[in-house]
Design brief:
Distance between the termini: 43 Å
Structural class: alpha+beta
Strand order of the largest sheet: 1-5-13-12
Shape: globular
Order of helices and strands: EHEEEEEHHEEHHHHHEHHEEEEEHHHHH
Strand content: 5-15%
Number of strands: 14
Oligomer: single chain
Helix content: 40-55%
Radius of gyration: 23 Å
Length: 398
Amino acid sequence: MKLISFTSPCSFSGTILGFGFVLCIYFLFCLYDTIGYNSNGLLFMFQGKGLFAKKSIKKGDSIFIERPLVAAQFLWNALYKYKACEFCLRALETAEENARRLSGNPGLSLPHPELCCVRPELHQACPQCQVMYCSSECRQAAADQYHRALCLGPSQEDPEHPINKLKDAWRSMHYPPETSSIMLMARMVALVKQGQLALLHSLFRAALYDEHLSRWFVPEGFRSLFALVGTNGQGIGTSSLSQWVHACDALELPAQQREHLDSFIDQLYKDIEKETGDFLNCEGSGLFMLQSSCNHSCIPNAEASFPDNNFLLHLSALNDINPGEEICISYLDCCQRDRSRHSRHKILRENYLFVCSCPKCVSQMDELDVTSEEEEEEEGEAEGETEGDEMEDEMTDV
């Protein structure tokens, strides 16, 4: 297994990562025909955009693990007390604290508390602005890469500070469910800015400032940066409670204890659904070099997940993948993939600016060009007004 990173596991050099980030922007803006290999046996070809297997990959295999070039928690998610590490988005609440908040039950106690992976004794705050990190390593990495440029210090709670105004404006335009964050873009700019400040005597730094940083502040450059994040950003979700549940599932227990534990967890999720709804995780987004080179398919052969409770992305095979076969993910969720071809194309055009020609879409070319909602409306009209009214009531209840 290879951890894909632009820094070594022990190094958090802002200069090195800044250079890797610039390379990412270079590849994403300039579609060069480049072929490369990694020790995982992957062939990734920047011919336009695409990632291909060099050797056979079995269903369930982990294809690669990648850390993002930059990541940020969603602003509404942070505002509503979903506590995450400012750098790696690791959930900071213990599983029990998380369960108490989500269920609205402050007296709740979880069995097997030793299975919680959160270590509060390792948490550290920025000494200037008090934002929290899961470890000293993450605090230092953030400081080296972008936080010195973005730290608000004593102005962290000042509504008149320009960055806080920016956050408020973004929240007023983007209500949950969130898909991106203006702070991801801010960190991208800050990351390059800090890298340049560390290379005052470098001609490369000076050229980079002129070509890549200043243009992001003019309207056209800002739109390019916004489009980059919107079309290449990957959602990230972390949860200490989810980690605890997975650990409980792996316990070997006598039948009666297993039944009791499963019943407890089932009831807990019912209580959480009643109190909180579907918003269970610390959520954010990140920009990943390899993952963003994966094309979309409505029948993907790979999917991304975050089992480490932080921003490390694991890409795993959903099916056996043959040498030379393209590795594809889906930009749509499971429900969206089940909708009509026209509905899927509408979502992809509006959000990712392309028309899908995957095998599923090609096989459905003869379908009527109507969205799934239109299909449902036609079915409702055919079955009569009464049944249509009942369906409308159900949708209102949801």
